[in-house]
């Protein structure tokens, strides 16, 4: 008897459930799992609350596309029907938008870039000042140890 990991089970069951709703035979052929096993897994998944079910990437994209033209009330009703929170749907929409953004859109504005450069320069100057102070302190410590090694009577002072 073959054993399948939970990740694989979730992935296969997500194909069987809405919004993809693939047929048992097709998924069984693709995954190489018997139809009876898939029926059992689907039954177990349907017995769990809808919020605990896994969504595939294609399913999330379909959900975003389907709800894009709906107003807020209709989208909320759709989410309730499919066991989603509207915030999850919005997060998926934002992820899709980010993934499709042009590289130029993701760049910072020029004034943000200037402010960042100025802040970096200030931090680098402060770091250099602190490094110099640390080096001076280390040199004074080494010199005081050498002095106490050469003149042990001055060590108590």
Number of domains: 2
> What structural class should be given to the helix and strand makeup?
mainly alpha
Written as H for each helix and E for each strand, in order along the chain, the element string is: HHHHHHHH
Beta-strand content estimate: under 5%
Helical content, roughly? over 70%
Helical segment tally?
8
Distance between the termini: 82 Å
Global geometry: elongated
Largest sheet: none
Mean pLDDT rating: 82
| DSSP strand tally | 0
Query: Which regions have little confidence, pLDDT < 50, spanning 5+ residues?
Result: none
Measured on Cα atoms, how large is the radius of gyration?
31 Å
Protein name: Transposase
Coiled coil: 113-140
Keywords: Coiled coil
SSE topology:
Elements: H1 6-16, H2 24-31, H3 35-47, H4 57-68, H5 72-82, H6 86-100, H7 103-106, H8 110-150
Could you write a compact summary of the structure shown?
This is Transposase. It comes from Candidatus Accumulibacter vicinus. With 157 residues, the chain is mainly alpha-helical.
Defining traits:
157 residues, mainly alpha, 8 helices, 73% helix, 0% strand, coiled coil, Transposase
């Amino acid at each position: 008897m073959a054993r399948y990991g939970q990740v694989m089970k979730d992935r296969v069951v997500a194909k069987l459930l809405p919004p993809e709703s693939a047929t048992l035979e097709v998924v069984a052929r693709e995954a190489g799992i018997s139809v009876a096993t898939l029926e059992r897994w689907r039954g177990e998944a349907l017995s769990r609350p809808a919020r605990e079910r896994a969504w595939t990437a294609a399913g999330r994209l379909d959900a975003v596309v389907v709800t894009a033209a709906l107003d807020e009330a209709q989208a909320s009703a759709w989410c309730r029907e499919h066991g989603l929170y509207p915030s999850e749907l919005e997060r998926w929409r934002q992820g899709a938008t980010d993934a499709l953004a042009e590289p130029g859109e993701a760049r910072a504005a020029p004034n943000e870039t200037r402010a960042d450069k100025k802040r970096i320069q200030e931090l680098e100057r402060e770091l250099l000042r602190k490094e110099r102070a640390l080096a001076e302190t280390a040199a004074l410590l080494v010199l005081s140890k050498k002095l106490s090694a050469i003149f042990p009577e001055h060590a108590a002072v």
